[in-house]
Design a protein that fits this description.
Elements (H helix, E strand, L loop, with lengths): L1 H28 L5 H4 L3 E5 L4 H17 L1 E2 L2 E2 L1 E5 L12 E5 L1 H6 L9 E6 L1 H8 L9 E5 L4 H11 L5 E6 L7 H10 L3 E6 L6 H9 L4 E3 L12 H10 L4 E3 L2 H6 L3 E4 L2 H17 L6 E4 L5 E4 L1 H6 L7 H14 L2
Parallel strand pairs: 1-4, 1-5, 5-6, 6-7, 7-13, 8-9, 8-10, 10-11, 11-12
Antiparallel strand pairs: 2-3, 12-14
Helix pairs in contact: 3-11, 6-13, 8-9
């Protein structure tokens, strides 16, 4: 009897182990979806392993999995650049995160809706020039804050400022017409220098700071990069001129204020656009959008040293949101 009980225990244990291994194996193969399994789902293609990409994708998955389920199973499938060719998988919609991922979609079925995100505006516009918007729904969400948003922040946070200094490079010069239009609407005067080489930067900066009460920083890799940022921050600080910038990293480095979008906010926006395309397919909808969600950051220590009394970041953000509602 004892031998029989031991044998029964061994058999039960063996069955548990077999079931566990089977479950584990099924979990391992779930992300590798073939064409028969991916219909009705969303494919997410990303450019590489980074904290920023992971944060965007995690937010995408969290929001999309709430609304996109088949038999109670979330149907968001990840791919990286090592899992090509993508035509082996058929999805109802594709999302790309980053420029390299966007470039890979040129090989996809042309009627599949696309949502691109986490690209600089100029890169996105250049890439989408070749896309046929008449047969495919394409939405591109870039990283750059629209100029009016930065100007609204200046108007609210530093209301006495009337003269703004701006140094433009080849990519940020594209924003000049829009910048001028909104500056005129807000009663602000722009003092602009345009450069085509990094060697011209400091002289151009000195000239705009002679009249500018605030330096408005627009994203441009020629002007704001790891080789130039410290020089710009030191020059403006010595002149006692605040910088209003486009990233939280610049505020941590010494800029006074910034309006910026986090990876999670970009992910949320992309998820909403993807859901909209799934609900209402529209072959021919072609849109390039600025970030819908954003935050404000303030460097209190720099503001105090410049003698500026700037409101709380949350209050500034709420006021900016209200202004945008009024001008929609």
């Amino acid at each position: 009897m004892r031998k029989l009980r031991i044998k029964a225990v061994i058999i039960r244990a063996f069955r548990v182990i077999v079931r566990s291994v089977a479950i584990a194996c099924s979990l391992l193969v779930l992300p590798i979806a073939d064409a028969s399994e991916t219909s009705g789902s969303i494919g997410v293609l990303y450019s590489g392993e980074s904290t920023i990409h992971e944060s965007v994708i995690a937010e995408l998955e969290k929001r999309l999995n709430r609304i996109l389920t088949i038999g109670g199973v979330p149907r968001v499938v990840r791919y990286d650049n090592e899992q090509l060719p993508l035509n082996n998988a058929t999805h109802s919609l594709w999302i790309t995160v980053g420029l390299n991922a966007a470039l890979q979609t040129k090989s996809l079925e042309r009627r599949t809706p696309l949502v691109h995100g986490l690209l600089p505006k100029l890169s996105l516009e250049t890439f989408l020039k070749d896309v046929d918007g008449s047969t495919q729904s394409v939405t591109g969400i870039h990283l750059d804050q629209p100029p009016y948003r930065l100007l609204n922040l200046i108007k609210l946070a530093i209301p006495d400022a009337r003269d703004l200094g701006v140094v433009l490079g080849p990519s940020s010069a594209e924003s000049l017409p829009e910048l001028q239009k909104h500056a005129k609407r807000l009663g602000l005067t722009l003092h602009i220098e345009q450069i085509s080489d990094q060697s011209e930067l400091i002289h151009a900066l000195e000239r705009v700071l002679q009249k500018g009460q605030v330096l408005l920083a627009l994203p441009d890799p020629l002007i704001y990069n790891r080789f130039t940022v410290q020089k710009i921050l030191l020059t403006t600080y010595r002149r006692r001129v605040p910088i209003v910038a486009f990233s939280a990293a610049l505020v941590r480095a010494g800029a006074t204020l910034a309006v910026h979008s986090s990876p999670e906010q970009i992910g949320r926006h992309m998820a909403e656009e993807a859901a909209s395309l799934l609900r209402t397919p529209d072959n021919g909808r072609f849109r390039i959008q600025a970030p819908r969600y954003y935050s404000v950051s303030v460097n209190r220590q720099v503001a105090r040293s410049l003698g500026l009394n700037i409101g709380e970041a949350e209050e500034l953000l709420n006021s900016m949101l209200e202004l945008e509602k009024q001008h929609q």
